[in-house]
Write a structure and sequence with these properties.
By secondary structure, this protein is mostly beta strands. The protein has one domain: Sandwich (Jelly Rolls). 3% of the residues lie in helices and 37% in strands. The chain has one helix and 17 strands. Strands 2, 3, 4, 7, 8, 10, 11, 12, 13 and 16 form a ten-stranded antiparallel sheet that branches. Strands 1, 5, 6, 9, 14, 15 and 17 form a seven-stranded antiparallel sheet that branches. Mean pLDDT is 89; it is low at 3-24.
Length: 260
């Protein structure tokens, strides 16, 4: 039976909007339209908390370094999206992912948090602004193994991401805890990332684990061939580390993920 409200299913419609974009069976499109409910990280290095958005997006966020308590150490709403620069001290920042390695988690539907390599093709995409590209030791987005947060991005066991470092866009991969393979990419017509620009990064995983990339919906050239191990379980993630005591002004506009 539906939920009648003034003779309509307005409640059903409201509930559907709480769990992402209804056009996507697995995953969805999330646009950072309003402030999330944020847990308390206490300004402690490696402390984690949950950011819960009312469209159903749930991010598990960890401090990289200490973060000053208060509004400077949390997401800040802007007219374009959500600023995740935090307090912007040199060699500090934040990282987030969808899946907690200790939880059973969601494997399907709009709330999906992780994907099993080999089960189906999938992807993750993030569109954002970097106000000051010189203030990015790392500004990476992609997919990594579902595991505990690592302080250094190079320490993840398996990973495939696009990383913006002072405006240069690189692919970075790790397989079975080996050294990170970082490769400068030849960007599409939009070129390298400049101050204040809005771009999108997309990482796609084929059913056999092979990874490809898109920068502004176009495949850049130069990426080294890479595949996740079949059977590996991975989650979308973001990693920001500041290169100076200033704000990179990293504003997230939209996040999308799901089956291909």
């Amino acid at each position: 039976m539906g939920n009648p409200l003034y003779g309509s299913n307005k409640w059903d419609d409201k509930v559907s909007k709480k769990v992402g974009d209804s056009a996507a069976a697995d995953g969805g499109i999330f646009n950072f339209e309003d402030n999330p409910v944020v847990g308390d990280h206490g300004g402690v290095d490696t402390a984690s908390c949950v950011h819960m958005y009312d469209d159903g997006l749930k991010l598990i966020v960890q401090n990289i370094g200490t973060q000053t308590a208060g509004t400077a150490a949390g997401p800040v709403a802007t007219s374009a999206g959500m600023n995740y620069s935090y307090d912007a001290a040199d060699d500090e920042g934040i990282q987030w992912c969808l899946a907690d390695p200790n939880a059973k988690g969601y494997w399907k539907g709009p709330q999906i948090q992780k994907y099993k390599v080999g089960a189906a093709a999938f992807y993750a995409k993030l569109t954002f602004t970097i106000t000051d590209v010189s203030d990015t030791d790392d500004c990476a987005f992609g997919l990594r193994k579902v595991e505990a947060f690592q302080a250094a991005i190079d320490d993840y066991d398996e990973m495939a991401c696009l990383n913006v470092i002072s405006g240069d866009v690189k692919s970075e991969t790790v397989i079975n805890n080996a050294s990170t393979v970082a490769t400068d990419l030849t960007a599409p017509s939009s070129g390298d990332w400049i101050d204040g620009a809005v771009h999108s990064l997309k990482v796609k995983v084929a059913a056999d684990g092979a990874v490809t990339y898109e920068y502004d919906n176009t495949a850049p050239t130069g990426a080294v061939a890479y595949s996740f191990d079949v059977g590996e379980v991975v989650t979308p993630f973001f990693y920001l580390k500041h290169a100076a005591a200033s704000t990179a002004g990293v504003i997230l506009h939209s996040f999308e993920h799901g089956r291909q």
